Amino acid sequence: MRVLVLSDIHGNLEALNAVLQAAGPWDALWNLGDLVGYGASPNQVVNVIRPLATVTVRGNHDRICSGLTSTRNFNPIARASAKWTMQELSAENLEWLRGLPQGPLEPGMMDEVRVTLAHGSPLHEDHYIHTMRDAWAPLQQMATQIAFVGHTHIQCGFAQKEHDWQDLRPLYLSRVGSVMWRLPLAAGVRTLINPGSVGQPRDTDWRAAFAIYDSVAREVVFHRVPYDIASAQERLQRAKLPKRLAMRLREGH
Ligand code: ZN
Question: What phi and psi, each to the nearest 5 degrees, are found at residue 85?
Fold first, then answer.
C-alpha cells in the first residue's frame, strides 16, 4: 500500500494542490491535522481533504479555530488568524472540524504493520517533538513500532533500536524544484516520522513538504515541491490577515 501522509496544511490551497499533483497515485491518505489556521483558504482546504482523507487526526488549530478550546495560549498573530478562520469557515466545515478524532489513532493493520497517527506526539496531541530528547519517551511508550506525527512543521524522523538512537533529517541536494529523500524502515527499529508541513514549513525551506509511506517496500520517501506562493500570499493580503503570515511562507520559518 502506498500512503500519502500530510500534515499542517494550514489553509494553504496552493501548497495542497501542488502536493496532490506531485504525489502520484496512492491507496490511502493519512492527514495528521491542522488543516486550517494561518492560511487564507480554510474552506477550500477542508473541501478538498474531506472526501480524500482515509483518516484525519485533529490538530490544535483545528480544535481552536472550530471553537472547541480558547485562543488563550496563542500568540497575537495566531489568535488573529484563528478568529478570522472561525468566521470564514462554513457551518458545515466547522461542524466537521469539531468532530475530528483526537490522536493517537491506529488506521488499521497494513501489510502486517501497525502504525500510530498523532498530531503532536503519540503521548499527547499538543506535545512537540523537535529533538531526540522529545522523541525519547514516545519512542519507548508508543503502542506501535512506527508513528507519524506533525505539529512542528519540520520534516524529520527519529529512530531507536536498543541503545542505538538516530536523528534523521532529509538531505536535499537542491533548493530548487522538486526533491525527494528515501528512508528505509528496518524491522525491529522504532521510528517516529514527521512528513513536514504542507502549507507552512518552518525548516527554512519554503517548498511544500509531504511523505509517501510504502508499507510493502517498508520505506518512507520525504518530498519537497514548489508551489504558487505568490497566489497564496495574495489571498492572505486580500483577507487582511497579518503581513507576517505572508512573509513567513517565503522564509519557510
Ligand atoms: Zn500546525
Answer: -60, -40
